[in-house]
Amino acid sequence: MVAHRTRLAWPVAGGVMAAILWPLSAYALSPIVFPFALVLVFAGVLAVRRPEYGIAATMALSPFTNAEIGGSKPFHILLPLLSFGLLAYAYLLSGERPAERLGGVKTTLLIFVAVGVASSILALEPSQSITKLFILLSAAALLLATLRICTDRARLLVVVGGALAALILCGGQGVIEYLSGQHGQFGVVQNGIVVGRIQGSFGHPNQYAGFLATLLPLAVAMLFTRRAPVLLRWMGAVGIAVGVSALVWSYSRGALAAIVVGPVIWLIIVRPRFAILAGLLLALLVYLFAPSVVRERFQSTSSGEVEIRSDIWAAAVDIYAEHPILGVGVNNFPVAYARLPVVPANATQRRLLQQEELLVPPHAQNLYLNILAEEGLLGLIAFLLFAGASMRRAFVGSRSDDPLTRAICLGIGSGMTALAVHSLLDVGFYGEVAFPLFSLIAVATALTALDRVRADDTQPARGAIEAAGIASALPATP
């Protein structure tokens, strides 16, 4: 009886403490301090008791990395804390980790991170590298934690659920933004009228759309896979509904093209027979259901836009030529761009855009050129090695005999290819998308490792069965 009363008293005591501490903390510090502390404590307890859910929660919250609450960005603190905390917890665990036998992803990731750190230390302005480098380190920690913690399919499916939750929250935020009319600061002109674009908590609609395009193929794969758990199939359906709507209302030409071209390229590589059919179906859906604003976006590309983009790409090459080994440092492209001469000798770079003002772009508007400028040739090689190792894991998983593994890896590979296509026109790799992307790379690696373990375990049994069959076929000795 006493124990029962004690259990009933805890919620009441907790409510009283919250009623006292929240007003006090709001008055002394900020209204968000107490709720943020509660979220942090809950996330910490969850990460310790069920670490795979901690990974999923980190992925689900990734769209809010740059969300401002009360004039601050609390997720800049929470997500890295969760990532590094999960990594520390993962290495306290003992036992065999099959996914770590496949060292390609882990090795190339560490090389890529090491080059990024070295480039940032030698950057033109090292302080400019801190934010982007911290996101890269946090995402890398989440990948390594996933490899260590998720040693069976049940835990890996929880992580997949985290990616779908990230898609739902990201798309849902954009849908609410669109329906409420609270668009971002960017817009497009249709028939002389400015139409707002949604961007969620992201810095630009293009980066927001790139996040959606990376996760949408996984949602499609889950929805149409009978072997997937019912909850994941429902999450896939909801993710597609809000994700596609938000992607369209972002009016991002690069992401809209990537969500069609990327999966088709991946299917050509993995399932050539279905690639043409899938491409025709996607093109038909876009043609039939794309709003008029989207169609005008693709038809209204002016020569001025092309010239500006080509000038920025040429500037990235100019910056690389001055710093060919390790570049100018992560997130230092604007610094290096501002230092370029107004009229370089090759006359390919026009800094006085529109003949009115000096515009300094935040990045090279192309991930590969941006890495080349910021991290040099070593950085680009390291990135390509990591990308190649990651796509190889997704490729192997996409050809698995297990239907669920095959579907998940098809979704992950299609998403990575869509991001690769989108990265030809934008740079979002060092942003919010890094958290779910790196974790899903770990999922593909772990699933292929489990496939290999199952194959190794069944090989002796298969040999014994074959031997028994041969022995039974031999004539009995007298």
Describe the structure.
This protein is mostly helical and 478 residues long. It has one domain (21-450). The chain has helices at 2-28, 33-49, 51-61, 75-90, 103-121, 130-149, 153-180, 205-223, 230-250, 253-270, 272-289, 292-299, 303-322, 333-339, 367-398, 403-422, 434-473; strands at 187-190, 193-196. It has a two-stranded antiparallel ribbon with strand order 1-2. α7 (153-180) packs antiparallel against α17 (434-473). The chain starts with a helix and ends in a 5-residue tail after the last helix. Mean pLDDT is 80; it is low at 344-348 and 461-474.
Global Rg: 25 Å
Q: pLDDT average, as an integer?
A: 80
Number of strands: 2
Note the gap between the termini. 78 Å
| Low-pLDDT segments | 344-348, 461-474
How many helices in DSSP terms?
Answer: 17
The secondary-structure class comes to: mainly alpha
**Helicity, in percent?**
over 70%
Largest sheet, if any?
Answer: 2 strands, antiparallel
* Spatial ordering of strands, largest sheet: 1-2
List the helices and strands and how they pair.
Elements: H1 2-28, H2 33-49, H3 51-61, H4 75-90, H5 103-121, H6 130-149, H7 153-180, E1 187-190, E2 193-196, H8 205-223, H9 230-250, H10 253-270, H11 272-289, H12 292-299, H13 303-322, H14 333-339, H15 367-398, H16 403-422, H17 434-473
Antiparallel strand pairs: 1-2
Helix pairs in contact: 2-3, 2-4, 3-4, 3-7, 4-6, 5-6, 5-15, 6-17, 7-8, 7-9, 7-17, 8-9, 8-10, 8-16, 10-11, 10-16, 13-15, 15-16, 15-17, 16-17
